[in-house]
Design brief:
Largest sheet: 8 strands, mixed
CATH topology of the largest domain: Aspartate Aminotransferase, domain 2
Helix content: 25-40%
Strand content: 5-15%
Order of helices and strands: HEHHEHEHEEHEHEHEHEHHHEHEEEH
Number of helices: 14
CATH architecture of the largest domain: 3-Layer(aba) Sandwich
CATH class of the largest domain: Alpha Beta
Radius of gyration: 21 Å
Number of strands: 13
Length: 402
């Protein structure tokens, strides 16, 4: 067996299952889960129709590069979404089977494990695929912590120069999971300067970019590069998917875009990896990327939900509306002695609501776990269910405080 597999840590949801294994939830309440970030709004009919109308595609092997029409549709969407952004459909875009698959595969393409001290930097807290991708590529993860005082922005100053010097790949997530923080242009400028100085690749995970609560849409990595005069997107790969934007997590469809040289190497890797997108998924993806009406409606549903839930929880918790995404990143009240795991266990036992301990989404680094004492709540269910969960949480906390 590959010895690197032994370095992988249990996934957060497996740890959550073990945490709750001995608990019998209160049967007086209908179960509500805010644990897993799986979109549960209805899949748009236009995507379903495109799928069922293209079943003849099952008779053909797909090409790894994807159909020109799909890549052009993605290029057109990028131009609409990011103020006229110019991305070449022929050389700078590649369809992928969801951003998770792309995140993992990109690390296998980029990392040279023969170089001493090969390092991958990621945010902390973080999406665990970043860590697993680094480990299985033969690199060492290094975690840059977030700071609550800076709206959970990443403290890049905490990364020593000796670490930057060994870094081959940097994962960023904007809007962030679980914090919802969005990176600004100054932050991008800093990272591009560091990339130029030390030669590492930036992988920008942007899968939550279309769920936001303010008038201005979140800045993307390619857009930031263009604003800063980096029109060739050197050493930058941005990626996103339809899962959250279009409520199709089962479709497994997304794309990567950016540096043409990196895209070319990634294409070579994927040709051998056997990860070409199905023709029927490509047809459905064309329909999804070409339509914005369902995205506007989806965003409106999340805005209403967060507008109702956040003020309720803010009565009893340190929690605020995030920049974007569909998570609330809340501090556990003092009555629980800062234990996110105890909070999660008691809430399930007494009120039959599942939340994810924040410490499961982070690692002990630089002397502390930045997720400890926090919980992540995924507001993915319909509005009424999320409001009911919030009311139960309020009652739960009030019963502990008084």
């Amino acid at each position: 067996m590959n010895p690197l597999l032994s370095r992988l840590q249990p996934y957060p949801f497996e740890r959550l299952r073990q945490l709750h294994a001995d608990i019998t939830p209160n049967p007086a309440y209908k179960p509500i889960s805010l644990g897993i970030g799986e979109p549960r709004h209805a899949t748009p009919q236009l995507i379903k129709d495109a799928l069922t109308g293209s079943l003849a595609g099952l008779a053909s092997y797909p090409g790894t590069l994807g159909e020109p029409k799909l890549r052009q549709t993605i290029s057109d969407w990028l131009a609409r979404r990011y103020c006229g952004l110019k991305v070449d459909a022929a050389t700078q875009i590649l369809p992928v089977n969801g951003s998770r698959e792309a995140l993992f595969a990109l690390a296998q393409t980029v990392i040279d494990p023969s170089r001493p001290g090969a390092t991958v930097i990621s945010p902390n807290p973080f999406y665990q695929i970043y860590e697993g991708a680094a480990l299985l590529a033969g690199a060492q993860p290094w975690f840059a912590p977030s700071e609550a005082a800076r709206n959970f922005g990443i403290d890049w100053a905490a990364v020593p120069e000796s670490v930057w010097g060994k870094t081959q790949l940097l994962f960023v997530c904007s809007p962030g999971n679980p914090t919802g923080a969005v990176m600004g242009l100054d932050e991008w400028k800093l990272l591009f300067e560091l990339s130029d100085r030390y030669g590492f690749v930036i992988a920008s995970d942007e899968c939550y970019s279309e769920i936001y609560f303010r008038d201005e849409a979140p800045l993307g990595g390619l857009e930031a590069a263009t604003r800063l005069g980096r029109h060739d997107f050197r050493n930058l790969i941005a990626m996103t998917s339809l899962s959250k934007r279009s409520n199709v997590p089962g479709l497994r469809s997304g794309f990567v875009a950016g540096d043409a040289a990196l895209i070319n190497s990634f294409l070579l890797y994927r040709t051998y990896h056997g990860s070409a997108m199905s023709p029927i998924v490509q047809t459905a993806s064309i329909a999804a990327w070409a339509d914005e009406a369902h995205v506007v409606d989806n965003r409106a549903q999340y805005r209403e939900k967060f507008a109702r839930v956040t003020p309720l929880l803010a009565q009893v918790m340190d929690v605020a509306l995030p920049d974007a995404g569909f998570y609330l990143w809340a501090a556990v009240p003092e009555a629980f002695n800062g234990s996110d795991t105890a909070f999660s266990r008691e809430l399930l036992a007494l009120y039959n609501v599942v939340v994810l301990p924040g410490s499961y989404l982070a690692r002990d680094a630089q002397g502390f776990n930045p997720g400890a004492g926090r919980i992540r709540m995924a507001l993915v269910a319909e509005t009424g269910e999320c409001v009911e969960a919030a009311r139960r949480i309020v009652q739960f906390i009030q019963s502990k405080v008084h």
